Backbone:
């Protein structure tokens, strides 16, 4: 049974007053629509569920004072906000997947003598983690954040580095990774 608009308004007011249980009613009411948006972008059931859950967690973690300010005083539509959050989070998931694929493709280019199946078997998570261990801490953090889909600007902000310094460390990390791959697989670049 779908809740009436007046029930969702009451639930929103209760949530803004600090009654966290009221969010569960809103979750049940809006889940199908939010899930559909996430699924359209992310393309998989598991990722869509994760995206919607992450967005609700972010709203849930909001302090009561901020809830009142945003949703009562400023009259921001919570459902519309969640739709935008779900869309943006879904796009972040796509961006992360694309970055990972780009990095794997770059590593595949380093291994021209191996077939695609052999490359796929060779590039397991364990091998990638082993590759990262040969790097200094900052370079390891930059490469890891890059594979998670963060831009150079975002990485620089997280690690408190200038964008130029960040780019240089990323270049150094990539170069050392290439050298490591060359030593392990006998590839000379």
Residues:
């Amino acid at each position: 049974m779908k809740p009436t608009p007046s029930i969702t308004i009451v639930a929103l007011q209760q949530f803004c007053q600090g009654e966290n249980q009221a969010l569960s009613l809103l979750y049940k009411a809006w889940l199908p629509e939010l899930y559909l948006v996430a699924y359209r972008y992310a393309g998989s059931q598991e990722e869509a569920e994760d995206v919607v859950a992450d967005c609700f967690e972010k709203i849930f973690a909001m302090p009561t004072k901020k809830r009142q300010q945003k949703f009562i005083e400023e009259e921001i539509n919570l459902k519309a906000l969640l739709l935008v959050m779900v869309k943006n989070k879904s796009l972040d998931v796509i961006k992360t997947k694309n970055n990972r694929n780009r990095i794997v493709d770059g590593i595949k280019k380093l291994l021209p003598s191996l077939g695609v199946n052999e490359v796929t078997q060779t590039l397991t998570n364990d091998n990638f983690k082993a590759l990262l261990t040969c790097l200094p801490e900052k370079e390891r953090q930059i490469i890891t954040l890059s594979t998670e889909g963060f831009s150079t600007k975002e990485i620089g902000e997280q690690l408190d580095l200038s964008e130029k310094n960040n780019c240089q460390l990323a270049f150094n990390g990539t170069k050392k990774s290439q050298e490591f791959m060359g030593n392990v697989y006998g590839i000379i670049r």
Summary: The CA atoms of residues 43 and 74 lie 34 Å apart.
